[in-house]
Structure formats: structure tokens, C-alpha cells
């Protein structure tokens, strides 16, 4: 079931919505409805809805987009004069609009379509974004290759002697003309010599011709906002504002998303959040992915469970929509599609980094591994053992433990004659860590290095820093509470919810902020853009994002104590 989650969270979140909605929430809804009409080819209906939003007196974040979609709709109805007038108004009112090249492109299409070729070419020449090159070439091919008049094409080429597309069109026309003279062929040869067209370039240009009968810019990048589908187990049938729920993390995460939405609005990135209550049943998920509203999503966050993940991934793999699993550490999920990302480093990467660090800390190659009762504990232990062996290490023993002090005291050997070079602990019980450390101290192993998952310690009940000189923590979600940005976020969060954020709130904020920025900046070139560089902790609340080598977030998950606080080992 699709729902506005802000209604669900009314007990927690009472702040106003983003500035996008504040200015004219009714107008925003009308705009979105008009865009949907356009996509369904209901151009007259879109015009009718957009008309009041395009007036010069309307000043909202969506106004230039409304004017652009009005012009697009008028173009599709062959009302070229009306379309050109709206684009002229848009240029005059918003000369610095970040989609101004789309305006030039549509003006070029109008000129060529209506027979005003010079006006069309002049508009296309104003486009400076290289990302439009193939579309501009295809548009010219579609209209100019059918002119059928050699003198006209020659005249145009002489008026625009540096226009590479026009020169190629003229060459192809002469080569195909059965009555071309020797003079014509010589002219084509001189153009070929000047521009040096390859055979591959000629074939590619010819192939574009039938695809460019409509304007390029009618997709997700010009609608003025990002639609984000959030697929989490909200369990609305169990909802109660008076008690904390077992799935509280879903609400905390969503509250982080809403705060990210507000921040992104200040950066000119408008986001619509659409929440779906999703469990592990495949059939309801199939209904969601077949819903037209869901199919307009630019980002899909979740779902978390296997059956619903498989259904969603199957849809996403064919759609190109960005899909983010916000919590999983299962690297095999990435095999489902190239446009799926993990918000966390996988278990394999976490243990790889931990083993690599312990190689620098441990004086020898022997290790003892302890792990707790959960499947994740045993998976991390097994992965770490493999990583350590791959680094020429030796695992003396790998033991499943109970967290209480008495059990540990009875079952951990004295290591009097054969001490391990280091010890690894993977436990989801916060009592395990401090109890193990005290047992090791009683065994006179006060200097033996230990690497452990942060969940092995309860920070509210044990002073982890006292073990800092020999303890390394695996914690991809470490919160540095001394950071100014963390303190500011906590203050804003408290003002909105009368509660303090959990780690899931930080994750929701960081992940939406990052991926919305990347998508807004790189659009359909997201994959290469996101791989271009690492985005560190200085830019985000937590440790940042690193997708330079993989679609899992390979930010360093291992922490060391620097004498005053825990920091990533690569600092």
C-alpha cells in the first residue's frame, strides 16, 4: 500500500515540510499531476493544469519546470508558436536556469520541425553541454536529411561552416544522390578532408535518424524533483505512538530521510518521499513494482528481506532505477543488477580490512577466533578466518562462546605455553567484549591485540577506551559525537521529534543526501560519477561513502583509539 508516511509519523514529526511544498503545496501537487499526464501522452490535460502555474506572478521552485513542461506539451500538440512563446518567457524569467540547454534544444526542435531551419540551428549552436552532442546530431539528421534539396543544404553549410553535423549530413546526401555531379563530389571530398569523418561515425549518425522525431528532454532529469520509494517494514497494523516498536529502526531511518529532504531542498534538490509498508511477502511486492507511480521512482531504498528484495531487484535490473539496500552486509546482493548499491561494506570487505590491519599490529601469525550466537557472528568469524589464512596466517581455534563471565572463565584456556599473536571476537551481545577482555587480563594477556565487532561491547555499560591501546573495533556506523555536524543534527532532531537520533537516523540522513546529490549531479551517468572519488567523513555525519571500486560502500570500517577518541585506522 502506498502512503504518505508523514501522516503516520505525525506523533513524532511536527515540523513544516520542505520549502518546495511550503510555497504552494497545492501547486506542487498540480505540477506533479501534469507531469504524469505528459508522460501518459495526455498533452492537452497537462497544458490545462500547467497554465496557472506558468504565470509570471507564480514564484515557486517548480515554476521554471512547469513552464518547460508547458512548452513540451504544446510542442507535442504541434502548437509551435505557443511553445516558443513559453520558452522565451522561461529564458527571460530564469536566464540562469540549470536546465537552460534543454530550452535551447527544444527551441532547436521547434525551428527544424516548423521549417524555420536557421532559427533551429542558431538555438542548437547555443548548447555548450557535450552531453547533448548525440541528441543534437540525431535531431539534425532527422530533419535535415529529408530536405531533399542539395542547393539548400550547401547554402546552410556555407552559413554554418564549423557545424560538423551539418557537414556530415551534406556528405551523406551527396554520396546517396544518383545525379550528383563531379563538382558535388569534389565538395563532399573537401568536407571529408576538413572534418575527417570515420566510417564508424557515418554509420552511427545514419542509425540515429529514425529515433529523433521528438525532443530529447522529456525524462526524469527535467521534471524538477526526485521521487524516492522507501520500502521498509513499518508494520502499520502494529503501529502505536505510545510505545517503542521492534521495528523502531524503520521509523528512525525514515525520520533521517525527512531531515535529509529538508537539507537537499536548501541545495535546490527537491525530493518526494513515497513510503511503502513492505514485509517478506513477494505477492504484495509484485503489485507495487507493477504500479505506475512506483515505476516513476528515481531511487528505491530497500526492501530488506529476501523475497521482496528479489522481486524489486528483478524490476530494477531492467529499469535503470537506482536501488539502495540501506542495511545489508551481504555482498552477493550486488549480483542481481549493476544499479544496486549497498549502504554498508559487506562482511567480506569488513573482515578483509580487519585482517589487513591486524597484520600490522600482531607480532605473529597465529590467531584465536571467538564468535557469538547469531548467524552474522558466525558468518563474520568464518570470513575473518579465510582472510587471515589468505594472508599466510594460522587459526589456532575458532570457538562459539556464551557471553557471560562464568562461561568464558571456564572455557577459555590459560594459553600458558602457546599464546596467540592476536584474538578476534565477533559477537552481537554487548557483554561479550568486556567479559572477554577481563578474562584475558586475568590470563596475563594484557598486551595481546584484539579485534572485535563494536556490537561486542555496550558503550553505555563499559568504558571501551580503557582497552584502546590494544583493541581495534569493526564499526562501519561509528558516530563521532564530537563532530559539530553531529551535534547540530542532534539539536535539530530533538527540536522536531523530542528524542535523540539513533544510528539509523544518521544512516537515513547520510544515504539519501549522498545518493540524491550524486543523481542530481550525474543523472544517467551516475555509475561513472559515483566511482570518480571517495566522499569522506567531512562531508557527511558518519564515515562517508566510497564506491570507487565496488557498489558496496567500501569506507574503512576499522577503528583505533588515538588517546582521546576512536578514529578510522586510515587516518
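Q: What amino acid sequence fits the structure above?
A:
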Amino acid at each position: 500500500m502506498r502512503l504518505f508516511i508523514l501522516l503516520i509519523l505525525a506523533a513524532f514529526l511536527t515540523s513544516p515540510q520542505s520549502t518546495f511544498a511550503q510555497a504552494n503545496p497545492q501547486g506542487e501537487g498540480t505540477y506533479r499531476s501534469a507531469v504524469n499526464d505528459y508522460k501518459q501522452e495526455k498533452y492537452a490535460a497537462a497544458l490545462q493544469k500547467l497554465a496557472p502555474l506558468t504565470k509570471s506572478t507564480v514564484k515557486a521552485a517548480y515554476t521554471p519546470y512547469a513552464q518547460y513542461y508547458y512548452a513540451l506539451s504544446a510542442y507535442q500538440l504541434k502548437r509551435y508558436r505557443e511553445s516558443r512563446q513559453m520558452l522565451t518567457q522561461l529564458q527571460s524569467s530564469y536566464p540562469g536556469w540549470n536546465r537552460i540547454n534543454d530550452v535551447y534544444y527544444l527551441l532547436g526542435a521547434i525551428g527544424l520541425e516548423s521549417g524555420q531551419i536557421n532559427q533551429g540551428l542558431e538555438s542548437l549552436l547555443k548548447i555548450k553541454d557535450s552531453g547533448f552532442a548525440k541528441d543534437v546530431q540525431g535531431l539534425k539528421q532527422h530533419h535535415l536529411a529529408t530536405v531533399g534539396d542539395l542547393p539548400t543544404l550547401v547554402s546552410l553549410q556555407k552559413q554554418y561552416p564549423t557545424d560538423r553535423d551539418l557537414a556530415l549530413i551534406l556528405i551523406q546526401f551527396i554520396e546517396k544522390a544518383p545525379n550528383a555531379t563531379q563538382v558535388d563530389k569534389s565538395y563532399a571530398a573537401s568536407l571529408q578532408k576538413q572534418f575527417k569523418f570515420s566510417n564508424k561515425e557515418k554509420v552511427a549518425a545514419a542509425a540515429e535518424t529514425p529515433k529523433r522525431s521528438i525532443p530529447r528532454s522529456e525524462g526524469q532529469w527535467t521534471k524538477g524533483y526526485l521521487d524516492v520509494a522507501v520500502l521498509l517494514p513499518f508494520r502499520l497494523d502494529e503501529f502505536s505512538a505510545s510505545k517503542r516498536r521492534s521495528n523502531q529502526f524503520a521509523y528512525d531511518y525514515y525520520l533521517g530521510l525527512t531531515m535529509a529532504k529538508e537539507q537537499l531542498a536548501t541545495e535546490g534538490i527537491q525530493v518526494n518521499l513515497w513510503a511503502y509498508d513492505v514485509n517478506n511477502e513477494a505477492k504484495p511486492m509484485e503489485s507495487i513494482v507493477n504500479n505506475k507511480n512506483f515505476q516513476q521512482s528515481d531511487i528505491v531504498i530497500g526492501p530488506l528481506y529476501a523475497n521482496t528484495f528479489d522481486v524489486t531487484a528483478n524490476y530494477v535490473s531492467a529499469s535503470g532505477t537506482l536501488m539502495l539496500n540501506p542495511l545489508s552486509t551481504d555482498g552477493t546482493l550486488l549480483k542481481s543488477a549493476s544499479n544496486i548499491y549497498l549502504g554498508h561494506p559487506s562482511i567480506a570487505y569488513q573482515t578483509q580490512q580487519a585482517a589487513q590491519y591486524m597484520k600490522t599490529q600482531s607480532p605473529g601469525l597465529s590467531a584465536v577466533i571467538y564468535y557469538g550466537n547469531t548467524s552474522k557472528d558466525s558468518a563474520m568469524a568464518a570470513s575473518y578466518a579465510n582472510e587471515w589464512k589468505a594472508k599466510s596466517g594460522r587459526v589456532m581455534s575458532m570457538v562459539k562462546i556464551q557471553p557471560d563471565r562464568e562461561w568464558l572463565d571456564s572455557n577459555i584456556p590459560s594459553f600458558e605455553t602457546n599464546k596467540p599473536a592476536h584474538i578476534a571476537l565477533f559477537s552481537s551481545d554487548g557483554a561479550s567484549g568486556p567479559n572477554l577482555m577481563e578474562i584475558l587480563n586475568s590470563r596475563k594477556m594484557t598486551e595481546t591485540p584484539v579485534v572485535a565487532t563494536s556490537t561486542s561491547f555496550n558503550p553505555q555499560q563499559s568504558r571501551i577506551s580503557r582497552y584502546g591501546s590494544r583493541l581495534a573495533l569493526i564499526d562501519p556506523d561509528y558516530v563521532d559525537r564530537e563532530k559539530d555536524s553531529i551535534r547540530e543534527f542532534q539539536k535539530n532532531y530533538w527540536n522536531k521529534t523530542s528524542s535523540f537520533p539513533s544510528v539509523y537516523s544518521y544512516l537515513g540522513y547520510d544515504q539519501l543526501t549522498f545518493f540524491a546529490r550524486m543523481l542530481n549531479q550525474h543523472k544517467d551517468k551516475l555509475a561513472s560519477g559515483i566511482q570518480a572519488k571517495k566522499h569522506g567523513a567531512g562531508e557527511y555525519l558518519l564515515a562517508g561513502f566510497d564506491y570507487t571500486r565496488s557498489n558496496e560502500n567500501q569506507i574503512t570500517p576499522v577503528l583505533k583509539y588515538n588517546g582521546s577518541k576512536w578514529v578510522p585506522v586510515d587516518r
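Q: And what stands out in the fold?
A: The mean pLDDT is 86.
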